[in-house]
Amino acid sequence: LKTLPFLFQYPPAVQHLVDLGAVEFLSKLRSNVEPNLQAEIDGILDGLFILPSEDAALYPASYQTRQTELPQQPEILIGYFPQDKSNFQQMEVSPRPMVNQTVKCLKFSTFPWLPLTTTDRHVLSSNESSLRSSNHTLIWNTCELLKDVIMQDFPAEIFLQRPKIVQSLLSLLKLAFGGDGKHRLALQSVSCLQQLCTYLRNRLNFHRDPGFFSSKQDVVSQNSSLSYCHEVRVAHHSQNPSPGSSSPRPSVVGRTGQRPRGDGQDWDAVSSSGSSGRVPVNSRVSVHSPLDVVHIDLPELETEDTLELQFQQLSLPQFCVSILESAVPLLRTGSRQVIIRVLELLAEDLILIGEAISEDIWDDNSLFAIDMKEKLLVVLGSLGDTVCYHRSGVSSDQPEIVLVHHRMAFVSVSLFAVRVLQMLLPVEKAGQLLPEPMSAALFLVSLDMPISLEYPNIHEAVVAYLEQLNSENYSIYKRTAEAVYSIECTCNFLSDVGKEGERNLLELVELADQALGSFSYHQHFPLIKEIICLCSKIWKSAQASPLLQGESQKVFLRMLSHPLLQVKVETYNCCLEIIKECLGVHNVTKPVSSLCNGIHFLLHPKVLYEISAFGIQEPKNEVNAAARAILLYLLQGRLMMTAVTWNKFIESLCPVIPVLQGYADTEDPLGNSILLLSKGSPEAGEGALPSTTRLKSVLRLLLVRKPSVRSLALKLLACHLTREEGADTKRPSIDARVLSRVTNLFIVKKPIELKLDDRRELVIK
């Protein structure tokens, strides 16, 4: 690709490349390569379309500072509306500018220079002065004329090369904020500029691939200029052409034949293409304008300084940015019609921006690039202010029509702003370049749920930019998004858990886990009971997989230790209700096995430890009372349990006994039930604590603060020592007087201050 541009200075080489099908090949290749290579291919295609010196040539797709030499030979300049060949003025035309400096941030800069005759210039000058008039009717009619005639008769680039009409149209946009119907003139200007953007895009496409606009009848609409040209030629085939009709209509590019139109369909290109070569001049039939019929004395215009005009012309990037600067403020008007029309204009302008400006502009330090960057940042700041304005304009005390207007504007402007960012600003540069108003606007858009649902790609882009811009706002967004997702999971869980038939329990458990994160927002307490019932159902089934049981247990433990007190209260109360239902005395006449399995989700060391260590210690009375009741029902419920369930309970309880013994008490029902665990006899058999575990529990009771508990522990210890196998053969013999002093064996006279982090000291020596 880098070699091909060197061949452009040799016309035969260019012609040979075209004959080989280089245009078609590169056009197809362009869509399959990276953006930086697309720009190189565009430059090569531009070079392939450079005509020999007698034809107009397309400037390279980059911004150029020009050096020219004074012309030595004058040539005849012919324009759009000639009255007679004898009236043509002899004017000077400067040669094509030479490239001196290239700004790499631009994909396309200027169109080929098109000279105009006095008649052509008079048409433009007349419209320029009309647009500057104080007569609103004249301005309105001029805009209509521009749309219906002038912009279709002149190639679109003429209005960039002579930018006074464009500048007048841009100045008319300010009338959008005025009264007395002035906003209608602004809408007319918007319509003209939108049409110009469309025609510029067509002209740009034409210059890149003239063959794209075919003159064949089957690929051209009946209303197009090409079909009209064909009809005119056929209609005059059998007639003898008059001198007027046989005279060629001069073209703006300096060749005879039909003139280029603003829609990008150049009849010159059509007539000069194909295998038949150029059609003879006298075989053409021209379509005359009203100025061809009646002779009008035109005022004298000064001779054009072509070099000065070329320096004053608007490049395509300048035109695009000028529209942004002038049109974006109109998005804050109170008129829905104005906002819609301006957004349509900006949508067309955005397409041209993508064709003209590269995202590399932020790394370019040329004067042109610096100027463009400053203007773009101002525009982005204005867009951000506009988004915030329409977002803050929504309040409950306003009429519905105002709310709808602000909401529509907020969504529409937000979408446009994000698309501008996507086209021009790489995400990694957002933190360095984006103005504060745009950062605030992106934060508001990121939190807008309807936009995230309707435009997920836009939402993802907003989040990516926000992450680079403001870590605090991004953190708020993340927490908000998690809460929203959690609420969505809550709704899905409540919807699915009530469905009949077979359900995916693992998915339900995952939804329940996610739902807990948003409970502090919705506080829907029936959710807790549904989750606990689901956990009970899972552990009740013997066929449940260990994975499913483990995941459900994690959710249940989160509920038992939830930071929100109301969740813990509801969780403990629900568990207590289930235990009462399964182990209550009203179930004496019912089959035990069909009931007690419902409490299996509680019979696990982790669950029992959570209840014993934290539930009972909870300051809130509703929680600790429920925790005590749960443990009491379990400890006293042996008769209501199957042997399998009780053994499962004892097995799960063994690791938790050291914690439970802290609540041992001879006067408290729960404490007394805990003491009974340490009582055991060989006759108790299956279902009692293992002997080693029971001995350890008795020794631990000697550490309890209450003397009554220590006395009971001493009796249990003596009983254990006397009943163990071979007790009568062991020495020393058990002396009651010695054992009586064992009660206070681990009680010190002077309290010891325990330092849990200091492991070098022994507390008990």
TrEMBL record:
InterPro entries noted in UniProt: ARM-type_fold, Rotatin, Rotatin_N
Gene Ontology, cellular component aspect: centriole; centrosome; ciliary basal body
Protein name: Rotatin
Organism from which the protein derives: Neovison vison
SUPFAM superfamilies (UniProt xref): ARM repeat (SSF48371)
Pfam families cross-referenced by the UniProt entry: RTTN_N
Region of interest (Disordered), residue spans: 236-283
Annotated Rotatin N-terminal domain residues: 5-48
Biased composition (Low complexity): 241-255, 270-283
Gene Ontology biological-process annotations: centriole replication; centriole-centriole cohesion; ciliary basal body organization
Signal peptide: none
